[in-house]
From TrEMBL:
Subcellular location: Cytoplasm
Keywords carried by this UniProt record: Aminoacyl-tRNA synthetase, Ligase, Metal-binding, Zinc
Boundaries of every Alanyl-transfer RNA synthetases family profile domain copy: 1-236
The name this protein goes by in its record: Threonyl/alanyl tRNA synthetase SAD
Statement: the UniProt record of this protein carries the keyword Ligase: yes
Gene Ontology cellular component list: cytoplasm
Location (main, coarse): cytoplasm
Gene Ontology molecular function: any one: alanine-tRNA ligase activity
Cofactor(s) demanded: Zn(2+)
Length: 243
């Protein structure tokens, strides 16, 4: 099983060395014994970057989990099984996802607290994000109220802590409606917890910034109905220089 090096709290690391466990030339995929590349999941796209090795280098363009293995799709040269590779993340892409995923947690907590609506789904990009809430029926003033409350939290520059926690303890601490804990297999224990100051805690395997001040200003750019009792909010971040 591939060791995920960014877990639980090494999101800012950009380079690593690893050993090639398997190569599938027909699909252009590589399995490593350890990786910093985030695999697609939880509404967050995969990391991109580069693998370099003695005989050449290739561009990592997709990362997915398949039957328990994390497979890196590589364009260009493929390393040989058993080779040592040096991995480098596309940091601009990774950091954008870190900011937007953390912002998604902020908005989700605000909506849960203020409207009693849970996050039914989300999708993060490197320049925007969307969240679906249910049960929800926002009026035309609600997006601005959500935006103001989210920015008030961001301005507090709260710390964002990532750590592994015993499942039972995290389940007890996570507010009702904050997470779909029932979708996580029972044998996953401990769970990785993401805690924002004294306002939010949620099990999450995605990548995140260390402080809310890194998010900058959040602007809700669209709100739409996605069916009975479901509302979608889309937002962008206009923030500080890249870390």
């Amino acid at each position: 099983m591939t060791e995920q090096l960014y877990l639980p709290d090494d999101d800012y690391r950009r380079e690593f060395d690893a050993r090639v466990e398997a190569v599938d030339e027909s699909n252009g995929t590589v399995v490593l014994d350890r990786t910093l590349f985030y695999k697609e999941g939880g509404g967050q796209p995969p990391d991109h970057g580069r693998l370099s090795f003695e005989s050449g280098e290739g561009r990592v363009v997709d990362v997915r989990k398949d039957h328990g293995e994390i497979r890196h799709t590589v364009e260009g040269n493929l390393p040989k099984e058993g080779a040592t590779v040096h991995g480098e993340l596309d940091w601009e892409r990774r950091y954008a996802h870190m900011r937007y995923h953390t912002a998604q947690h902020v908005v989700s907590k605000v909506v849960l607290d203020e409207y009693g609506a849970s996050t039914a789904g989300n999708q993060i990009h490197d320049d925007r994000a969307r969240i679906d809430f249910t049960p929800a029926a926002f009026d035309e003033d609600d997006p601005r109220a959500i935006e103001e409350r989210a920015n008030a939290l961001i301005e507090r520059d709260l710390s964002v802590e990532k750590e592994n926690r015993p499942r039972a303890a995290l389940e007890a601490e996570t507010p009702d409606g904050r997470s779909n804990l029932d979708l996580i297999p029972d044998d996953v224990d401990p769970l990785r917890a993401v805690t924002i100051g004294d306002v939010d805690v949620c099990p999450c395997g995605g990548t995140h910034v260390d402080r809310l001040g890194e998010l900058g200003e959040l602007t809700i750019v669209d709100r739409s109905s996605k069916g009975a009792d479901t509302e979608r909010i889309e937002f962008v971040l206009d923030g500080p220089e890249q870390a």
